[in-house]
Automatic annotation (TrEMBL):
Residues 8-192 form the VWFA domain. InterPro entries: CLCR, Vwaint_dom, VWF_A, vWFA_dom_sf. Gene3D superfamilies: von Willebrand factor, type A domain. PANTHER family: CALCIUM-ACTIVATED CHLORIDE CHANNEL REGULATOR, OS01G0640200 PROTEIN. This is VWFA domain-containing protein. It comes from the Eukaryota. Keywords: Coiled coil. The keyword Coiled coil applies. Residues 320-369 form a coiled coil.
Amino acid sequence: MSFNDDEPIVASQDVSGEKPAAFLAGKTKATIINKTTAPLEETEFKVMLELTGAGSGNDRSGVDLVTVLDITENSQEEIENLVNALVANGGTNISAGLQTGLKVLNDRRLTSGRVVGIMLMSDGQQNAGGDAAQVPVGNVPVCTFGFGADHDPTVLNAIANNSVGGTFSDVRNQDNLSIAFSQCLAGLLTVVVQDLKLTVTRVESTIVKVSAGNYIQSKDDAAGSVTVSFGDLYIKEVRKVIVDLLLPASSPAGSDVLEITYTYSSGGKLFDANPIILTVSRTGRTSVEPEREEVMMEENRLRTAQMMKEARVMADDQKLGNARDKLVEAQNLLEDVVNDESNPLIEMLKSELQQIKRLMKSQEIYEKQGRTYALSSETSHNRQRYAAKGDDVEKLRMFATPLSPLLGPLEDRLPLFFRLFIWHNNS
Protein backbone atom coordinates (compact mmCIF):
# COMPACT_ATOMS: atom_id res chain seq x y z
CA MET A 1 0.00 0.00 0.00
CA SER A 2 1.45 3.36 -0.97
CA PHE A 3 2.31 6.00 1.61
CA ASN A 4 -0.12 8.90 1.67
CA ASP A 5 0.61 11.94 3.79
CA ASP A 6 -1.64 14.55 2.25
CA GLU A 7 -3.39 15.59 5.45
CA PRO A 8 -3.46 19.37 5.87
CA ILE A 9 -0.58 20.59 8.01
CA VAL A 10 -1.13 23.55 10.29
CA ALA A 11 1.65 26.11 10.15
CA SER A 12 3.46 27.28 13.26
CA GLN A 13 0.94 28.95 15.54
CA ASP A 14 0.35 30.16 19.05
CA VAL A 15 -1.57 27.96 21.47
CA SER A 16 -3.68 29.40 24.24
CA GLY A 17 -7.18 28.83 25.59
CA GLU A 18 -9.09 26.92 28.21
CA LYS A 19 -9.55 23.66 26.30
CA PRO A 20 -6.71 21.27 25.40
CA ALA A 21 -5.23 22.26 22.05
CA ALA A 22 -5.09 19.37 19.57
CA PHE A 23 -3.22 19.35 16.27
CA LEU A 24 -3.29 16.59 13.68
CA ALA A 25 -0.13 16.66 11.60
CA GLY A 26 0.46 13.64 9.43
CA LYS A 27 -0.26 10.41 11.29
CA THR A 28 0.23 11.73 14.82
CA LYS A 29 -2.07 13.97 16.84
CA ALA A 30 -0.47 16.31 19.36
CA THR A 31 -2.56 17.48 22.33
CA ILE A 32 -1.31 20.17 24.70
CA ILE A 33 -2.79 20.49 28.19
CA ASN A 34 -1.84 23.27 30.61
CA LYS A 35 -3.15 26.15 32.68
CA THR A 36 -3.90 29.25 30.62
CA THR A 37 -2.49 31.76 33.11
CA ALA A 38 0.53 32.15 35.36
CA PRO A 39 1.40 34.79 38.00
CA LEU A 40 3.79 37.64 37.28
CA GLU A 41 6.47 36.49 39.72
CA GLU A 42 8.89 33.67 38.96
CA THR A 43 6.84 30.49 39.03
CA GLU A 44 6.82 26.79 38.25
CA PHE A 45 4.59 25.72 35.38
CA LYS A 46 3.58 22.31 34.01
CA VAL A 47 2.72 21.36 30.45
CA MET A 48 1.42 17.92 29.47
CA LEU A 49 1.85 16.75 25.89
CA GLU A 50 0.05 13.78 24.37
CA LEU A 51 1.12 12.17 21.11
CA THR A 52 -1.46 9.76 19.67
CA GLY A 53 -1.12 7.40 16.72
CA ALA A 54 -3.80 8.71 14.40
CA GLY A 55 -3.37 6.63 11.25
CA SER A 56 -6.26 4.65 9.82
CA GLY A 57 -4.22 1.49 9.52
CA ASN A 58 -5.00 1.15 5.78
CA ASP A 59 -1.57 2.49 4.89
CA ARG A 60 0.36 1.17 7.86
CA SER A 61 4.01 0.17 7.60
CA GLY A 62 4.64 -3.26 6.08
CA VAL A 63 4.91 -6.32 8.31
CA ASP A 64 6.46 -9.61 7.25
CA LEU A 65 4.42 -12.16 9.21
CA VAL A 66 5.35 -15.81 8.70
CA THR A 67 2.99 -18.41 10.12
CA VAL A 68 1.34 -21.71 9.26
CA LEU A 69 -2.27 -21.03 8.29
CA ASP A 70 -3.46 -24.38 6.88
CA ILE A 71 -3.39 -27.20 9.45
CA THR A 72 -5.29 -30.31 8.43
CA GLU A 73 -6.02 -33.17 10.82
CA ASN A 74 -3.14 -35.13 9.32
CA SER A 75 -0.83 -32.12 9.63
CA GLN A 76 -1.86 -31.61 13.23
CA GLU A 77 -1.07 -35.22 14.07
CA GLU A 78 2.30 -34.90 12.34
CA ILE A 79 3.13 -31.73 14.26
CA GLU A 80 2.15 -33.35 17.56
CA ASN A 81 4.40 -36.32 16.78
CA LEU A 82 7.29 -33.98 16.02
CA VAL A 83 6.77 -32.13 19.29
CA ASN A 84 6.49 -35.38 21.24
CA ALA A 85 9.80 -36.50 19.76
CA LEU A 86 11.65 -33.43 21.03
CA VAL A 87 14.13 -34.12 23.82
CA ALA A 88 15.41 -31.42 26.14
CA ASN A 89 19.13 -31.39 26.79
CA GLY A 90 21.78 -28.84 27.64
CA GLY A 91 20.98 -25.51 29.25
CA THR A 92 18.90 -22.40 28.70
CA ASN A 93 20.78 -20.20 26.26
CA ILE A 94 18.63 -17.07 26.10
CA SER A 95 21.49 -15.11 24.56
CA ALA A 96 21.72 -17.47 21.57
CA GLY A 97 17.97 -17.30 21.03
CA LEU A 98 18.03 -13.51 21.03
CA GLN A 99 21.05 -13.36 18.73
CA THR A 100 19.40 -15.80 16.33
CA GLY A 101 16.34 -13.56 16.11
CA LEU A 102 18.53 -10.52 15.45
CA LYS A 103 20.43 -12.41 12.74
CA VAL A 104 17.18 -13.29 10.96
CA LEU A 105 16.26 -9.60 10.91
CA ASN A 106 19.72 -8.45 9.84
CA ASP A 107 19.82 -10.98 6.98
CA ARG A 108 16.60 -9.74 5.39
CA ARG A 109 16.79 -8.49 1.82
CA LEU A 110 13.76 -6.19 1.95
CA THR A 111 13.94 -3.73 4.83
CA SER A 112 12.70 -0.34 3.61
CA GLY A 113 9.60 0.77 5.51
CA ARG A 114 9.27 -2.60 7.24
CA VAL A 115 8.24 -3.01 10.88
CA VAL A 116 10.31 -5.47 12.89
CA GLY A 117 10.14 -6.88 16.39
CA ILE A 118 11.23 -9.88 18.43
CA MET A 119 9.02 -11.85 20.81
CA LEU A 120 11.16 -13.87 23.19
CA MET A 121 9.58 -16.46 25.50
CA SER A 122 11.37 -18.31 28.28
CA ASP A 123 10.49 -20.59 31.18
CA GLY A 124 14.02 -21.09 32.52
CA GLN A 125 17.06 -19.47 34.10
CA GLN A 126 19.82 -18.60 31.65
CA ASN A 127 22.72 -20.95 32.34
CA ALA A 128 24.58 -21.02 29.03
CA GLY A 129 25.85 -18.64 26.38
CA GLY A 130 26.57 -15.57 28.48
CA ASP A 131 24.34 -12.78 29.73
CA ALA A 132 21.47 -12.05 27.33
CA ALA A 133 20.94 -8.70 29.07
CA GLN A 134 24.23 -7.55 27.51
CA VAL A 135 23.26 -8.36 23.91
CA PRO A 136 22.87 -5.10 21.93
CA VAL A 137 19.55 -5.09 20.08
CA GLY A 138 19.79 -1.70 18.35
CA ASN A 139 16.44 -0.23 17.37
CA VAL A 140 14.59 -3.56 17.41
CA PRO A 141 11.76 -3.67 20.00
CA VAL A 142 11.89 -6.88 22.02
CA CYS A 143 8.80 -8.13 23.87
CA THR A 144 9.76 -10.77 26.43
CA PHE A 145 7.43 -13.28 28.09
CA GLY A 146 8.27 -15.18 31.26
CA PHE A 147 6.22 -18.20 32.29
CA GLY A 148 6.64 -21.18 34.56
CA ALA A 149 8.06 -21.17 38.08
CA ASP A 150 11.71 -21.00 37.04
CA HIS A 151 12.01 -18.19 34.49
CA ASP A 152 14.39 -15.27 35.13
CA PRO A 153 12.35 -12.03 35.34
CA THR A 154 15.40 -9.84 35.94
CA VAL A 155 17.09 -10.92 32.69
CA LEU A 156 13.89 -10.82 30.62
CA ASN A 157 13.02 -7.37 31.95
CA ALA A 158 16.55 -6.11 31.20
CA ILE A 159 16.33 -7.39 27.61
CA ALA A 160 13.04 -5.54 27.09
CA ASN A 161 14.42 -2.36 28.65
CA ASN A 162 17.49 -2.50 26.40
CA SER A 163 15.23 -2.19 23.37
CA VAL A 164 13.19 0.80 22.23
CA GLY A 165 9.57 0.18 23.18
CA GLY A 166 10.01 -3.39 24.42
CA THR A 167 7.99 -4.78 27.34
CA PHE A 168 8.24 -7.69 29.76
CA SER A 169 5.08 -9.74 30.39
CA ASP A 170 4.53 -11.93 33.45
CA VAL A 171 2.46 -14.87 32.20
CA ARG A 172 1.81 -16.76 35.41
CA ASN A 173 -1.10 -18.68 33.93
CA GLN A 174 0.20 -20.23 30.73
CA ASP A 175 -3.32 -20.37 29.30
CA ASN A 176 -3.00 -16.58 29.01
CA LEU A 177 0.14 -16.71 26.87
CA SER A 178 -1.81 -16.36 23.63
CA ILE A 179 -3.57 -13.25 25.01
CA ALA A 180 -0.29 -11.60 25.98
CA PHE A 181 1.32 -12.63 22.70
CA SER A 182 -1.64 -11.38 20.63
CA GLN A 183 -1.46 -7.90 22.15
CA CYS A 184 2.19 -7.60 21.17
CA LEU A 185 1.52 -8.97 17.68
CA ALA A 186 -1.44 -6.62 17.25
CA GLY A 187 0.90 -3.73 17.99
CA LEU A 188 3.27 -4.77 15.22
CA LEU A 189 0.33 -5.04 12.83
CA THR A 190 -0.92 -1.54 13.66
CA VAL A 191 2.28 0.53 13.72
CA VAL A 192 1.45 3.86 12.07
CA VAL A 193 4.71 5.74 12.65
CA GLN A 194 8.29 4.69 13.30
CA ASP A 195 11.19 6.43 15.01
CA LEU A 196 8.91 9.00 16.65
CA LYS A 197 10.85 11.83 18.31
CA LEU A 198 9.41 14.71 20.32
CA THR A 199 11.46 17.89 20.83
CA VAL A 200 10.57 20.62 23.33
CA THR A 201 12.55 23.88 23.30
CA ARG A 202 12.45 26.65 25.88
CA VAL A 203 11.36 30.13 24.79
CA GLU A 204 10.68 32.51 27.70
CA SER A 205 11.26 29.76 30.24
CA THR A 206 13.70 27.18 31.59
CA ILE A 207 13.08 23.46 31.14
CA VAL A 208 13.54 21.90 34.59
CA LYS A 209 12.48 18.31 33.89
CA VAL A 210 10.87 16.19 31.20
CA SER A 211 8.97 13.12 32.48
CA ALA A 212 8.62 10.47 29.77
CA GLY A 213 9.22 7.11 31.44
CA ASN A 214 12.55 5.53 30.56
CA TYR A 215 12.54 6.51 26.90
CA ILE A 216 15.90 7.92 25.80
CA GLN A 217 16.25 11.69 26.24
CA SER A 218 18.92 13.85 24.62
CA LYS A 219 19.60 17.45 25.68
CA ASP A 220 20.96 20.37 23.71
CA ASP A 221 22.01 22.90 26.33
CA ALA A 222 22.89 25.55 23.75
CA ALA A 223 19.46 25.39 22.14
CA GLY A 224 17.68 24.77 25.45
CA SER A 225 15.91 21.72 24.04
CA VAL A 226 15.15 18.13 25.06
CA THR A 227 14.37 15.37 22.56
CA VAL A 228 12.58 12.15 23.57
CA SER A 229 12.88 9.10 21.29
CA PHE A 230 9.79 6.85 21.42
CA GLY A 231 10.38 4.40 18.58
CA ASP A 232 7.19 2.96 17.04
CA LEU A 233 3.66 4.14 17.81
CA TYR A 234 0.56 1.98 17.31
CA ILE A 235 -2.86 3.16 16.17
CA LYS A 236 -4.60 4.98 19.06
CA GLU A 237 -1.56 4.45 21.29
CA VAL A 238 -0.72 7.48 23.44
CA ARG A 239 2.55 8.82 24.79
CA LYS A 240 2.15 11.35 27.60
CA VAL A 241 4.98 13.69 28.55
CA ILE A 242 5.01 16.22 31.38
CA VAL A 243 7.36 19.18 30.97
CA ASP A 244 8.21 21.11 34.14
CA LEU A 245 9.08 24.72 33.36
CA LEU A 246 10.36 27.64 35.40
CA LEU A 247 8.88 30.91 34.16
CA PRO A 248 10.80 34.12 34.93
CA ALA A 249 9.22 37.19 36.50
CA SER A 250 7.23 39.09 33.89
CA SER A 251 5.03 42.08 33.25
CA PRO A 252 1.35 41.52 32.37
CA ALA A 253 1.34 40.11 28.85
CA GLY A 254 1.21 36.92 26.86
CA SER A 255 4.46 34.95 27.09
CA ASP A 256 5.71 32.37 24.59
CA VAL A 257 7.06 29.68 26.92
CA LEU A 258 7.65 26.52 24.89
CA GLU A 259 8.17 25.33 21.32
CA ILE A 260 6.96 21.83 20.45
CA THR A 261 7.70 19.74 17.37
CA TYR A 262 8.06 16.09 16.43
CA THR A 263 9.37 13.90 13.64
CA TYR A 264 8.71 10.35 12.50
CA SER A 265 9.10 8.07 9.51
CA SER A 266 6.38 6.13 7.71
CA GLY A 267 6.67 4.08 4.55
CA GLY A 268 10.35 4.97 4.41
CA LYS A 269 9.63 8.71 4.32
CA LEU A 270 10.53 11.29 6.99
CA PHE A 271 7.84 13.60 8.36
CA ASP A 272 8.71 16.78 10.26
CA ALA A 273 5.81 18.56 11.99
CA ASN A 274 5.74 22.34 11.97
CA PRO A 275 6.58 23.91 15.36
CA ILE A 276 3.81 24.76 17.81
CA ILE A 277 4.40 27.72 20.13
CA LEU A 278 2.73 27.57 23.55
CA THR A 279 1.63 30.95 24.89
CA VAL A 280 0.66 31.64 28.51
CA SER A 281 -1.03 34.76 29.89
CA ARG A 282 0.95 36.36 32.73
CA THR A 283 -1.46 38.08 35.09
CA GLY A 284 -1.45 39.83 38.44
CA ARG A 285 -4.65 38.17 39.62
CA THR A 286 -4.75 37.23 43.28
CA SER A 287 -6.58 33.96 42.59
CA VAL A 288 -4.46 31.07 41.35
CA GLU A 289 -5.75 28.93 38.49
CA PRO A 290 -5.98 25.28 39.62
CA GLU A 291 -3.89 22.64 37.90
CA ARG A 292 -5.61 20.79 35.07
CA GLU A 293 -7.19 17.49 36.14
CA GLU A 294 -5.55 15.59 33.27
CA VAL A 295 -2.12 16.74 34.46
CA MET A 296 -2.87 15.76 38.06
CA MET A 297 -4.05 12.28 37.00
CA GLU A 298 -0.85 11.66 35.05
CA GLU A 299 1.26 12.91 37.95
CA ASN A 300 -0.62 10.50 40.22
CA ARG A 301 0.27 7.65 37.86
CA LEU A 302 3.94 8.65 37.70
CA ARG A 303 4.15 9.00 41.48
CA THR A 304 2.45 5.65 42.09
CA ALA A 305 4.70 3.89 39.57
CA GLN A 306 7.79 5.36 41.24
CA MET A 307 6.62 4.26 44.70
CA MET A 308 5.92 0.73 43.42
CA LYS A 309 9.46 0.63 42.04
CA GLU A 310 10.88 1.81 45.38
CA ALA A 311 8.89 -0.93 47.14
CA ARG A 312 10.24 -3.53 44.70
CA VAL A 313 13.84 -2.44 45.39
CA MET A 314 13.19 -2.74 49.15
CA ALA A 315 11.73 -6.22 48.68
CA ASP A 316 14.78 -7.22 46.62
CA ASP A 317 16.87 -6.15 49.64
CA GLN A 318 14.64 -8.35 51.84
CA LYS A 319 13.07 -5.33 53.55
CA LEU A 320 9.49 -6.48 53.08
CA GLY A 321 8.15 -4.45 55.99
CA ASN A 322 9.46 -1.23 54.48
CA ALA A 323 8.21 -2.28 51.05
CA ARG A 324 4.67 -2.88 52.31
CA ASP A 325 4.73 0.46 54.16
CA LYS A 326 5.69 2.19 50.91
CA LEU A 327 2.78 0.54 49.11
CA VAL A 328 0.35 1.55 51.88
CA GLU A 329 1.64 5.13 51.57
CA ALA A 330 0.94 5.02 47.83
CA GLN A 331 -2.55 3.65 48.48
CA ASN A 332 -3.30 6.43 50.96
CA LEU A 333 -2.16 9.09 48.50
CA LEU A 334 -4.52 7.69 45.86
CA GLU A 335 -7.39 7.71 48.35
CA ASP A 336 -6.76 11.43 48.82
CA VAL A 337 -7.28 12.11 45.11
CA VAL A 338 -10.39 14.25 44.76
CA ASN A 339 -12.45 13.29 41.74
CA ASP A 340 -16.16 13.79 41.13
CA GLU A 341 -16.48 10.49 39.28
CA SER A 342 -14.71 7.16 39.55
CA ASN A 343 -11.58 7.46 37.43
CA PRO A 344 -10.63 4.23 35.59
CA LEU A 345 -6.92 5.05 35.82
CA ILE A 346 -7.04 5.57 39.59
CA GLU A 347 -9.05 2.37 40.04
CA MET A 348 -6.51 0.37 38.02
CA LEU A 349 -3.65 1.85 40.04
CA LYS A 350 -5.42 0.84 43.26
CA SER A 351 -5.87 -2.71 41.97
CA GLU A 352 -2.23 -2.87 40.93
CA LEU A 353 -1.05 -1.72 44.36
CA GLN A 354 -3.31 -4.21 46.11
CA GLN A 355 -2.00 -7.08 44.01
CA ILE A 356 1.66 -6.19 44.53
CA LYS A 357 1.07 -5.85 48.27
CA ARG A 358 -0.55 -9.29 48.32
CA LEU A 359 2.50 -10.74 46.56
CA MET A 360 4.74 -9.22 49.23
CA LYS A 361 3.04 -11.08 52.06
CA SER A 362 6.18 -13.13 52.59
CA GLN A 363 9.67 -13.23 51.11
CA GLU A 364 8.94 -16.65 49.62
CA ILE A 365 5.82 -15.44 47.80
CA TYR A 366 7.70 -12.38 46.60
CA GLU A 367 10.58 -14.43 45.22
CA LYS A 368 8.19 -16.79 43.40
CA GLN A 369 5.63 -14.31 42.07
CA GLY A 370 6.01 -10.78 43.40
CA ARG A 371 9.24 -9.74 41.71
CA THR A 372 8.00 -10.88 38.30
CA TYR A 373 4.71 -9.00 38.69
CA ALA A 374 6.46 -5.84 39.92
CA LEU A 375 8.99 -5.80 37.06
CA SER A 376 6.25 -6.31 34.48
CA SER A 377 4.33 -3.41 36.02
CA GLU A 378 7.43 -1.19 35.91
CA THR A 379 8.15 -1.81 32.24
CA SER A 380 4.50 -1.17 31.36
CA HIS A 381 4.47 2.19 33.16
CA ASN A 382 7.89 3.19 31.82
CA ARG A 383 6.90 2.45 28.23
CA GLN A 384 3.21 3.45 28.52
CA ARG A 385 2.52 0.18 26.73
CA TYR A 386 0.46 -2.87 27.70
CA ALA A 387 2.23 -5.78 29.41
CA ALA A 388 0.52 -8.86 30.83
CA LYS A 389 0.79 -9.18 34.61
CA GLY A 390 0.06 -12.45 36.38
CA ASP A 391 -3.55 -13.58 36.32
CA ASP A 392 -4.84 -10.07 35.59
CA VAL A 393 -4.23 -10.04 31.83
CA GLU A 394 -7.87 -9.16 31.13
CA LYS A 395 -8.62 -7.04 34.21
CA LEU A 396 -5.60 -4.71 34.28
CA ARG A 397 -5.38 -3.55 30.66
CA MET A 398 -3.64 -0.26 31.29
CA PHE A 399 -2.21 1.19 28.04
CA ALA A 400 -3.88 -1.54 25.95
CA THR A 401 -4.83 -0.65 22.37
CA PRO A 402 -7.56 -2.32 20.26
CA LEU A 403 -6.50 -5.66 18.78
CA SER A 404 -5.99 -5.43 15.05
CA PRO A 405 -8.72 -6.98 12.86
CA LEU A 406 -5.84 -8.48 10.89
CA LEU A 407 -5.42 -10.95 13.75
CA GLY A 408 -8.74 -12.56 12.89
CA PRO A 409 -7.38 -15.15 10.44
CA LEU A 410 -4.75 -16.19 13.00
CA GLU A 411 -6.84 -16.52 16.15
CA ASP A 412 -8.05 -20.04 15.39
CA ARG A 413 -4.51 -21.25 14.72
CA LEU A 414 -2.59 -19.57 17.51
CA PRO A 415 -4.08 -21.67 20.34
CA LEU A 416 -2.89 -24.91 18.69
CA PHE A 417 0.68 -23.66 18.50
CA PHE A 418 0.63 -22.48 22.09
CA ARG A 419 -0.91 -25.71 23.39
CA LEU A 420 1.87 -27.71 21.74
CA PHE A 421 4.56 -25.26 22.78
CA ILE A 422 3.43 -24.98 26.40
CA TRP A 423 2.74 -28.71 26.77
CA HIS A 424 6.25 -29.55 25.64
CA ASN A 425 7.83 -27.04 28.03
CA ASN A 426 5.92 -28.59 30.92
CA SER A 427 6.78 -32.19 30.06
